[in-house]
Amino acid sequence: MTATDPAKAASRPVRVSIDPSIAPPGTRNFRDAGGIPADQWHADQNGETLVPTHCCFCGVQCGMYLRVDKGGKVFGVEPRNHDINRMRLCPKGINAYQQVNHPDRLTAPLMRRSRDEEFKECSWDEALDFTVSEIRRIQAAHGNDAFGLLGGASLFSEKTYLVGKFARVALKTKHVDYNGRLCMVSAAGANKLAFGIDRAGNPFSDILLTDCLLIAGSNVGECFPVMTQYLWGARDRGASLIVIDPRETAIARTADIHVAIKPGTDSAFFNAVLNVVIAEGLTDEAYIAANTTGWDEVKKTVAEYPPSRSAEICGVPASQIVQVARVFAGADKAMAWHARGIEHHSQGVENCLSVINLCVATGHIGKPGAGYGTITGQGNGQGGREHGQKSDLLPGGRSITNPEHRKQICQIWGIEESELPGAGTSMMEMVWQMQRREIRGLIGICNNPFVSLPNYAVVKDGYDTAEFHAQFDFFLSETAANAHVVFPVTTWAEDEGVMANAEARVVKHNKAQEPPAGVRTDTWVICELARRLGAGKHFDFPGSREVFEELRVASAGTVNDYYGITYDRLDETGGIVWPCPSTEHPGTPRLFEDGRTYHPDGKIHMQVVEWHPPMDAYTEEYPLSLTTGRTVAHFLSGNQTRRLGALVEQTPRPWVEVHPSHGFRNGEPVRVVTRRGSEVFPALVTEAIRPDTVFIPYHWPVPTAANALTIDALDPRSKIPEYKVCAARIEAAERVDEVPAPPTPPGREAYPEAQVSRTDPLPPTSPQGRGTAERS
């Protein structure tokens, strides 16, 4: 906290000169155009308070103040001068507050006993009792594992802890997983194999110190906009920037080297880069000898990937491979960061390992300005997988198959080890099990698989086959609209809790307002269900604080140690990076500074990586690569952002990016066809994408859902779907498919301010890169 009370400071008039010669930076053009704000920027809200918190969206976790009026309602937002974001917010962050008091909010439980019926509002007792009776009916007839639970990585860590505990202690099922399975698990698997720990090795601030920054498979400018300041800060110091991406994104346009590889060829590329590093004597042999295992096997494998071979696989010049090797290995300090672009593959773990091998072989590990990081997608994508809602993990990142780990958690939870189920299956595998009627009932919390999972037809069939489905949400998502029971729960601004951002920095979200009447916290609903299932003594948690205290104890002594982190310390410091084993410990922003990893031998375990083609084979009928991703105005399944007017106006609908060589004009209907089906999008014609590749953003439901077309092939180790590449073709069509309005509760219509531009048949006006065609 600063010496100045922010609430009082906000209430004082702020006078800014309107003289254009002394206008604040960035405002002169606006004022010269005659757009002087009313009352000279003065905004005086009597009784307004500012609640410090963090954004609810991506893994950057920008600090913000929520503006609360004297009636106790959130009505606006201000950026905080937090270490993470330094007064910056992206379009999503600026508009996030609008969801809190949105007219689409669910304010009463919805229920129906059959999907043939319409939803009706009901009491909490009726919804809870029906859910419990269905759980008992299904489990009595088919066993405990016939009921499953799917959580989410946008939940506070306290709630993710409860999801895992509720599944194993109250439901007594092994089938629990979460939507972070669609996000970070390939990186997590690679990190554990190489380093014995699952998190980024360096803080964002180290980017400012590097001499060479490599970004692989991450559209930072749109997916993590505020992180861009760190990239620009490195560039201002003279750092080289290398971007590996099939599309010339906003960041790639500014890079010293942009390698536009063919989707699905990342490990072949990085093996070839390491091949050149070895051939030119650019490895750090002393570091390798002192700190690694497996180097000889890795060196032997990458010898099979000379630049000439990988250039043919990747569709890039061999000279670029050589250039990347020399620039990265030749830098005094170099860093590599990656995201979904190399992780969403059937070889996602291998792709990540190939980047790790490059960093380790060049000695760029564990130093200020030198290291390796993974950019988390969801707000709690890091924390969401640490404390037990992942199918194979217990709190503290413990393995559910490790007898000692099982014993430790059973002692904390007060249950017999024989009562603790074993490992379950992944999110997509659970859908297949629903199709086979192995899982007959499901509770979903903070996820929207009807938009976010691949191969929509399979997903819809799996959910329709389930005998019972309940969903927690604060808006009626496409998935919730298919359920039997929908529990209305709080937004992030109506509860408190912690999240861990992409640096593994644990930050505190604070409650800004009371929830609407009829709405409950996820914590309350989980604990009440547990009580009605007879497990109430294990779930006596009045709120998040009490859950966090148990989480601290449950993580103590593990790799993911939160024991030294308290709510008070988070309020004082603005965030602490785990592991933090005691309340005197400052946290661990940078790993491996002493050369030791979290494996028992303290070494980095380098891993052999072999490239293999994507699972969806190219043929004459399907010659192109379809890849998918996010856009700056929307987030994941869009259930939140597709309801916010400014974001819908900025990006009202999906499009398909195509190269001019295909002969389409901007806005013309283009049918994209894969082995799963076809949909029609307006063309965004641009030279910023490879001629053999097309791109569709995935935030919308059918009939405009990119994930109706993607393949449900999985990485054999991480079980992440191969979103980033499948075989496709494109052809001319007559009209684009219409974007549906988001689902709304019974008796309500879609919020009109968020629907005005939804029917726009043209792609967005925002620049997508070099050679982008104009709207016409």
Detailed description of the structure:
It is globular, with a radius of gyration of 25 Å. Mean pLDDT is 92; it is low at 1-43 and 766-776. It contains 24 helices and 28 strands. It is 28% helix and 16% strand. The chain is α/β, with parallel strands linked by helices. A hairpin with a 2-residue loop joins strand 25 (669-674) and strand 26. The strands form seven sheets. Strands 5-4-18-17-16-6-7 form a seven-stranded mixed beta sheet, with helices on both faces. Helix 5 crosses helix 22 and helix 10 (266-279) crosses helix 14 (318-330).
In short:
With 776 residues, the chain is α/β, with parallel strands linked by helices. 28% of the residues lie in helices and 16% in strands.
Rg result:
25 Å
Structural class by SSE content: alpha/beta
Query: How would a crystallographer describe the biggest sheet?
Result: 7 strands, mixed
Strand content: 15-25%
User: pLDDT average, as an integer?
Assistant: 92
Tell me how many strands there are. 28
**Low-pLDDT regions:** 1-43, 766-776
Pick out its properties:
six-stranded mixed beta sheet, alpha/beta, disordered N terminus, single chain, globular, 776 residues, seven-stranded mixed beta sheet
Fold topology:
Blueprint: H1 6-11, H2 28-32, E1 49-54, E2 63-68, E3 74-79, H3 91-95, E4 110-111, E5 120-121, H4 124-142, E6 147-151, H5 157-170, E7 176-178, H6 185-195, E8 212-216, H7 220-223, H8 228-236, E9 240-244, H9 250-253, E10 257-259, H10 266-279, H11 285-291, E11 292-293, H12 295-302, H13 307-314, H14 318-330, E12 334-338, H15 340-343, H16 348-361, E13 371-374, E14 393-394, E15 398-399, H17 403-413, H18 427-435, E16 441-445, H19 449-452, H20 456-465, E17 468-473, E18 485-488, E19 497-500, E20 505-509, H21 522-532, H22 544-555, H23 567-573, E21 576-577, E22 604-605, E23 624-629, H24 645-650, E24 656-658, E25 669-674, E26 677-685, E27 693-697, E28 726-732
Parallel strand pairs: 6-7, 6-16, 8-9, 8-12, 9-10, 11-22, 12-13, 16-17, 17-18, 23-27, 24-26
Antiparallel strand pairs: 1-2, 2-3, 4-5, 4-18, 14-15, 19-20, 20-21, 23-28, 25-26, 25-28
